[in-house]
Amino acid sequence: MNVKGEKPKCKITASRKLSLKILLLTRATEDLQRERQQRDEDKKKYLGDKLPPLQLSGKSMDELQNICKQLHAKVDVVDEERYDCEAKVSKHNKDIHELKLKVQDLGGKFKKPALRKVRVSADEMMRALLGSKHKGSMDLRANLKSVKKEDTDKVLTSEVGDWRKNVEAMSGMEGRKKMFDTGGAAQ
How far, in whole angstroms, is CA 126 from its chain's centroid? Predict the structure, then answer.
């Protein structure tokens, strides 16, 4: 690169580029023709292996019917194989499509929009959810229970007593049941 960061100019002339493109295209067409010929030869070879030439002259009607039945059986087998191959190909194509979608999703092409904070009161939220069924206002603070502060000393003395008195009453499963019953009621 130059000092200024410019790319060096291409040293191939336009006519040279054109001749190279023409050479590449001719070579590509020759390769395609060779591939077609190779496929045709492979197809003929495969069919020659799978289906030997039929000799129908001088055979009776029963032998010809047996040959037809064998040919039908072979056609059925080939159709089953073809169907299985097509099913596999379609399944693989679906899998490829799903994986492409996953790659696109993971690639981060889709940007998530920034979320805005929206302040909505409880009344507005209920109107949006219920529509015309919402009646009256919903004042959440009015529905809260008021808690009276009691003297903590009274609570502690009522709960704490002589522990020796309660040992026999709380022993066994009945005592534990009482403890849970009283504990659940206190809450």
Answer: 36
Q: Round to whole Å and give the CA distance between 89 and 97.
A: 12
Q: Which two tokens stand for residue 45?
A: 């070879």
Residue 161 has pLDDT above 80, yes or no: no
Residues 6+ apart with CB under 8 A from 2: 8
Q: Residue-wise over 35-52: b if at least 16 C-beta within 10 A, else e?
A: eeeeeeeeeeeeeeeeee
Rounded Cα distance, 137 and 124, in Å: 9
Q: Give the least confident one: 36-40, 41-45, 118-122.
A: 118-122
The mean pLDDT value of the chain amounts to 78
- Asked whether the beta carbons of 7 and 1 are under 8 A apart, the reply is yes
Residue-level pLDDT at 49: 85
Q: Give this prediction's pTM.
A: 0.36
Q: Provide CB contacts within 8 A for 59, sequence distance 6+.
A: 67
